[in-house]
Amino acid sequence: MFQLSLPRGRTLDLQSPQIMGIVNATPDSFSDGGKFYKNDSAVIQALDLLEQGASVLDIGGESTRPGATDVSLNEELDRVIPVIEAIRTQSDCVISIDTSKAEVMKQAIHAGADIINDVRALQEEGCLEVAAEFSDVPICLMHMQGQPRTMQAAPKYDHLINEIISFFETRIAACEKLGIARTRLILDPGFGFGKSLQHNFELLGKFNQFSELNMPLLAGLSRKSMFGNLLNRDTNERLAASLGGALLCAQKGAHIIRVHDVREMSDVLQVWAAANHGVTK
Ligand code: 9MG
């Protein structure tokens, strides 16, 4: 059973799968068309996701969808810091900052973020050092082959699962070298990040193999194109597939599920928890 220590003596209990609600502070986000770009809308959405059952809010200011362009440091800071500050004035909830920039990580933590969610697994300049500096902040290390702009061009693996596990081992070693304890790390194989349709579904089928690392696991499949391509569905028609995929991940050992549709995911996971841990009411 895993429990993550958080800043200010708080903890995140991972005994049953927890929901990370996605809050996009990006104008070009692929699944909400920028609806939540304005800071105030993002804050309203964030607080609503908590009501719906999210235990973590993931605030991101740079879209990582395939083909997305880079965002400048100042632009990213302008998008996310006011949102984190505003949420903090109203809630003591767990906030993660979705970024790969060291300075954004640092300012976000000062503004009240509790967790770093880095799709580039702390490989960008200065990120390992920032993570080492804030010793009470957990970090999600995600696997990605390539970079968002080009990652879906021709992803190639000789052995998908072994290569992802070996990537994790390398990044864990890099963290430990700087004094970042293994107990602070969450691992995410990165559905849709430099993976073909076949790779994504192999990952889903074999998700349980990551449990051998004996570390908390995060799965993010919400509305992803793996479902669109399999089922020929637009982004807003992928709810059932996303929930089904997420439930499979929960069953195969995921501890945190990153989703847009928190209320629906919460219902699904409550059914899962009742079947696995019994009914308490
Ligand atoms: C930011 N972001 C988009 N998709 C993601 C995923 O699948 N996992 C994590 N950790 N972050 C993601």
From TrEMBL:
PROSITE patterns: DHPS_1, DHPS_2, PTERIN_BINDING
Example of a GO cellular component annotation carried by this entry: cytosol
Gene3D superfamilies linked: Dihydropteroate synthase-like
One BP term from GO: tetrahydrofolate biosynthetic process
Lineage: Bacteria, Pseudomonadati, Pseudomonadota, Gammaproteobacteria, Alteromonadales
Keywords annotated in UniProt: Folate biosynthesis, Magnesium, Metal-binding, Transferase
InterPro entries according to UniProt: DHP_synth-like, DHP_synth_dom, Dihydropteroate_synth-like_sf, Pterin-binding_dom
Reactions accelerated catalytically: (7,8-dihydropterin-6-yl)methyl diphosphate + 4-aminobenzoate = 7,8-dihydropteroate + diphosphate
Pathway(s) per entry: Cofactor biosynthesis; tetrahydrofolate biosynthesis; 7,8-dihydrofolate from 2-amino-4-hydroxy-6-hydroxymethyl-7,8-dihydropteridine diphosphate and 4-aminobenzoate: step 1/2
Organism: Pseudoalteromonas luteoviolacea NCIMB 1942
The family this protein is said to belong to: Belongs to the DHPS family.
Name assigned to this protein: Dihydropteroate synthase
PANTHER family cross-referenced by the UniProt entry: FOLATE SYNTHESIS PROTEINS (PTHR20941), FOLIC ACID SYNTHESIS PROTEIN FOL1 (PTHR20941:SF1)
Gene Ontology molecular function terms on file: dihydropteroate synthase activity; metal ion binding
